[in-house]
Design goal:
about 170 residues; six-stranded mixed β-barrel; about 25% helix; Barwin-like endoglucanases; 3 helices; about 30% strand
Length: about 170
């Protein structure tokens, strides 16, 4: 009987180890390939160029707080980008008609696969994007050394004053 118990214990340990190490193996993803935006980084000028699809957002988000802490104004020249620093600037060019607009990144998005940027209604009107809703664009960042940090600090300061109930302080900013 002692022999059978040891054999069973040995078999159990071997099975446990095989399950544990088998769980560490890699798996191959079977997700369908979705078209991704093309990103080209140009380190000499610290600019990034992306080519992809853009959309716009307007009235349904008007007045809501953005990722930067400011209220969204659909008529401002602003945009939502997934990774550019908040407060940075970019030039968006509609590749269908060649029109361009400079926007300030103040929010995160877009949350739809295949899109590189969501721009405000005001920016969309400037480049002729309102009627089609979606267009192929080029997004080129503008190197800005001090403006990004200053805008981030300002919005944090604005939020802290608002939280403390100093609504009159907002008019200074």
């Amino acid at each position: 009987m002692f022999f059978h118990e040891r054999l069973l214990l040995f078999w159990g340990v071997g099975l446990t180890l095989s399950l544990v190490t088998g769980g560490c193996s890699t798996t191959i993803s079977r997700r369908a390939a979705t078209p991704r935006a093309t990103t080209v980084s140009i380190p000499s000028r610290s600019r990034t160029i992306e080519i992809g699809r853009a959309s716009w957002y307007g009235a349904e988000h008007h007045g809501k707080i953005t990722a930067s802490g400011e209220a969204y104004n659909q008529y401002d020249l602003t945009a939502a980008h997934p990774s550019l620093p908040l407060g940075s600037r970019a030039v968006v060019t509609n590749l269908d008609n060649g029109k361009t607009v400079e926007v300030r990144i103040n929010d995160r998005g877009p949350f739809v696969d295949g899109r590189v940027i969501d721009i405000s209604r005001g920016a969309a009107q400037t480049i002729g994007l309102v009627k089609p809703g979606i267009a192929r664009v080029r997004v080129k960042t503008i190197a800005s050394h001090n403006s990004v940090g200053a805008r981030s600090r300002r919005s944090r300061r604005q939020r802290s004053l608002t939280k403390r109930g100093c609504d009159s302080c907002e008019s200074q900013w």
